[in-house]
Each structure stands twice: as structure tokens, then as C-alpha cells.
Write a structure and sequence with these properties.
Layout (H helix, E strand, L loop, with lengths): L1 E6 L15 H18 L3 E4 L8 H14 L4 E8 L8 E5 L2 H15 L5 E6 L4 H4 L5 E8 L3 H6 L2 H13 L12 H14 L8 H12 L5 H6 L15 E8 L2 E8 L2 H12 L13 H10 L8 H16 L1
Helix pairs in contact: 1-6, 3-6, 8-11, 8-12, 11-12
The structure holds zinc ion (ZN).
């Protein structure tokens, strides 16, 4: 099959909606993944997004012209909605019956990710549907001004759902990406349940993880079970492997843990090393954090205060 994919807007003066995120950025993120996914399944793909336009009308005209002259079998225009910050969910527009069938398959796949199903709608007023000669759909993936939708959105899984809806075929998504939030919650639960020698310091341990892993979004956490950004030290070999990883301060060797339980234990093994001798005498998380930073835990002198400012959030999560 030959698919024409249109990443909505992205051709000034045709720019998309702006909410919590920018529609232009998201249609490109999802659209490029849809194209890659379709190609990985052996389909032919034509990118119908123009690079420049003299007006919004010209931008829309070019999209249809590319699809029509390339004789694509199916045209898919990718958009994001915006309304009043309260509306949320997915809607897909189509005109022809074959378009509506595709639209239904696509919306069902997207809504299986947890998005609210606003339904397949008649798109006979939409320029790109009216002016393309093949089955065509316009996908409003979700709302850029809805916190609910933006928290749920992941470009990889959104694109995979669109591809599945179009083709019935599954594309491989990067490992674990659909489970990010679940993995972070799992880590919090593991830490909560962990039996550690100085439980009053748990909030410090979690606050450091919140800061270092970006609330469970870092690759080091997702791929290597290391929410603390713990660098590799020889003494860690009893519980961790070393892995080369590029962080904000360059490439270095970091700890890779088999399990999240090991990560929790590994943290205390790391702190039990010589540079931090004497940490046991600090029973408040604040004093403990100042102490380890004083011992060289982090070159950023503001690190202790940054972590201390996250302690309330950590305490709440551990409650
Ligand atoms: Zn749009």
C-alpha cells in the first residue's frame, strides 16, 4: 500500500494550535513515527507535508496536490485539537465509507491507549478530505490544551496505534515506553516496601530519585533501573553491572541494576563507601543530604537544596 501522510500545519503561516504543548511539534513527532512505522512494515510512504506555503490555503492545497499526484492509496492527515482546556479525547474525520471504516479502526486503536472516544465524525467540511481523490482521514489525536491528554500522550504509542488502525499490523515500539508511568509507580512501591536500616532517610532517597530521573523519565531509569544516576564504582560490582551512558555532563560509566529492588539496595551500598563515612549520624533527611553533598556526592553545591525542596513531594508519595 502507498500511504500519504500529512503532518498537520508545520508550514508557516499555517501553524497549529498551542496549548500545554504545540500542535506543530506533536503532529511532526507522531507523523514522522507513523511514516517510519509504515515503512518498517514494508509500505510505501509519501510525506505530504509542504515545507513552505504562501498562505494557509496554499498549505492545504499543496498537501492534497502531493497526495493526488503521487496517487497514494490512503491519505492520513494528523492533527491535535484544542478547545477550552477541559475537552479531551480523540476524534477522527472522514467523508467516504471506506474512509469511515479506516477512521473507525484508527480511533479504536488510539482509544485502546486510554484516550476518550469522541467518535468518528463527518469531515465533508474539511479541505484536505474534500480535495483528495482517495480514502482519506483526518485524525485529531487528542487535545493539546488538556492536561489529561498531554499526560497520557506518548508519540511512539500514538503512532503505533495509528499504524495498527490503518494496516492491522503492529510496529515495534521502543521497549518499555508504554509502561513509563507504571514503572515509576513500581519503583515508588518498591522503595516504600524496602526494609532499610535508616527508614527515616527514605524521603531523601526518593527525592534524589525524583530529581535525578526526572520523575522516572530518564533513560538511565527506564533502561538500566538506575533512578539515582549512580555512577559506576568498583565496590558496586556485587549488585550492579557497569554501563556507558551519556548524561547531561557527558559520557560516563553508570550502574545498571537487574531489578528496582537492587537499585534501592545499591543506593545504600554506594553511600556505604568510604567518601561518605559517618552518614549514619544524620537522622533528618535535610542534614543527611547536606552531609553527603559536602562529601562530594555532587559537584553542584545547590544540589542539597534542590533535593530538600522536593522532600515534601517525596514524603507524600511514601505516605
Ligand atoms: Zn490542526
Amino acid at each position: 500500500m502507498k500511504y500519504g501522510i500529512d503532518c498537520g500545519h508545520n508550514a508557516t503561516p499555517d501553524t497549529g494550535a498551542v496549548g500545554i504543548k504545540q500542535e506543530d511539534v506533536l503532529t511532526l513527532a507522531v507523523g514522522s513515527r507513523v511514516m517510519a512505522g509504515l515503512r518498517s512494515l514494508g509500505h510505501e510512504v509519501v510525506n505530504c507535508t509542504p515545507t513552505k506555503a504562501s498562505s494557509v490555503g496554499d498549505s492545504l492545497r499543496q498537501r492534497c496536490q502531493i497526495a493526488n499526484s503521487e496517487k497514494v492509496d490512503v491519505f492520513v492527515s494528523i492533527h491535535f485539537n484544542a478547545f477550552n482546556c477541559k475537552a479531551y479525547g480523540t476524534e477522527v474525520y472522514a467523508m467516504s465509507n471506506s474512509g469511515k471504516t479506516l477512521a473507525k479502526n484508527v480511533i479504536n486503536e488510539i482509544c485502546s491507549l486510554g484516550f476518550f472516544n469522541r467518535g468518528v465524525k463527518d469531515g465533508s467540511h474539511l479541505y484536505v478530505l474534500k480535495n483528495t481523490c482517495m480514502p482519506a482521514i483526518l485524525v485529531e489525536c487528542c487535545f493539546v490544551d488538556s492536561a489529561t491528554d498531554m499526560n497520557l500522550l506518548n508519540a511512539d504509542t500514538m503512532a503505533a496505534a495509528i499504524v495498527k488502525g490503518l494496516t492491522g499490523q503492529c510496529v515495534a515500539t521502543p521497549a518499555k515506553s508504554p509502561d513509563r508511568a507504571a514503572k515509576w509507580q513500581e519503583f515508588i512501591d518498591v522503595l516504600k516496601a524496602a526494609n532499610i536500616a535508616y527508614p527515616q532517610l527514605k524521603p531523601a532517597q526518593l527525592a534524589q530519585a525524583i530529581l535525578e530521573s526526572g520523575r522516572g523519565t530518564s533513560e538511565l531509569f527506564l533502561e538500566h533501573n538506575n533512578p539515582y544516576g549512580l555512577k559506576w564504582r568498583r565496590e558496586m560490582s556485587e549488585i550492579a553491572q557497569n554501563v556507558s551512558y551519556k548524561a547531561h555532563d557527558g559520557v560516563d560509566d553508570y550502574c545498571k541494576f537487574q531489578t528496582l529492588e537492587d537499585a534501592v539496595k545499591g543506593y545504600w551500598l554506594f553511600i556505604g563507601r568510604k567518601p561518605y563515612q559517618g552518614w549514619e549520624q544524620y537522622s533528618s533527611p535535610e542534614d543527611y543530604l547536606k552531609f553527603i553533598v559536602g562529601c562530594g556526592y555532587c559537584p553542584d553545591k545547590a544540589y542539597a537544596n534542590k533535593v530538600i525542596s522536593i522532600l515534601p513531594e517525596a514524603r507524600k508519595l511514601l505516605h
